[in-house]
Design a protein that fits this description.
18-stranded antiparallel β-barrel, 3-stranded mixed beta sheet, about 450 residues, 7 helices, Porin, 21 strands, mainly beta
Amino acid sequence: MRAFRWLLITSLLNVSQAWSQEDLERALGGFDEIEPSSDAASSEATPSDRPWRLSGDAYLAGSINYAQAAPNAGQADPRGLSKLRAGGHLILDAQLLGLETRVSGVGFRDLVYPIKKREEFTHAVLQSYEADLELHEAWVRASPLSQLDIKVGRQIVAWGRSETLRVVDVLNPIDNREPGVIDLADMRLPVAMSRLDYYVGPLSFTGIAIHESRLNKEPVPGSDFFPMGFPLPGFKRPANGGNDTEWAAAITGRFQGWDAALHWARVYEDRPRLDPDTGSLAFSRITLAGVTGNYARGNWLLKGELARSRGLRYFGVPGRRFARSDALLGVEYSGFRSASLVIDVVGRKLHGFEHALQRVPDLAQELELETAIRCTTSHLNDSLRVTVIGVLFGEWGNDGSAYRASATYELGEGLSAEVGLAVYEGGDAALFDFFDPNDRVFFLLRQSF
């Protein structure tokens, strides 16, 4: 939909008119954290006169597909209402015996399946999309020394600097069942790990052991975004802990106006590969080494990530391991009166590429380019927030693209309503030909407490 690109460009032009001299003179003046962590938020949220705090939200979310074709006889109808999900997130933060703790749970039930013909949906779709209930974050943090933090349990560690694209952000799997509809920050899934942080002046040294084997939540056969007409074979997942423990480490320096970090990880790859001996899917370990950094000056924030991954496996060439280099360069500008603009560009090169990797199900390319543009504006005394996001693959989206526009209005204390539009465009990359007909309108009513 070329009109959506016009909408994105128009939004950027409107933002540029919101320039404020007062905002332009505002400087960041250095920072300790690029983004407030959930840990910091939970510490502030626990008042000294009460050792615990209960928070969370309840929501009703829906989607309406308007571009799908009529289904074949006996198949589920993807047109019209495709999601009507009631769910919530409950968080308990507490201070116990000098320990900081968090326990949270998430769950939902999708009411669209009783409304439609439930028997026409595949078992995989019902199992993945109809209902879910799970323990989310659940951790304990102790500080036996002023310079030492130890945190054990299910948690999220966001290494990346981008809000949309991933380079070194490999420690947590993601919920990718509805690509392009949910922000990356809300897609990360917690895993059980042990984390140790030691602080020396502006430096911090981090060691992580990941004990839980958890995979991405991907589209399943019969769902809107499943890219193949046949189910994948079964797979052997890594065990929890033991010899299958994943490892990671980082050294981070935070200084006045800038920060930088070195990252290393020995983890399992997100995508399965075909084991020629068993004919089933398996997951290979990859080794990632990377560096990230931010530099703030005035209303500008420059960020970068660079990583090299080794040990990647693909279906098309089952006997080989590949290496890939990824680089991200991003810029954020917050000098507008009531708006912000973020542009991130990632380039990826697959070393030793073979043409067999272009076929289904790999759909890989030797060189990949991804561009994410995010524009957010505030109106009506910050009661209304409008966000427009475009993610383009290839030069100017030649390989495919996805766009999302949404407006969120604060109806009252903790109560908000959001309505938006998600549009997918096909291109030279075969994957987006599957996504092309999945354009949808979505809405969300949320009560936070």
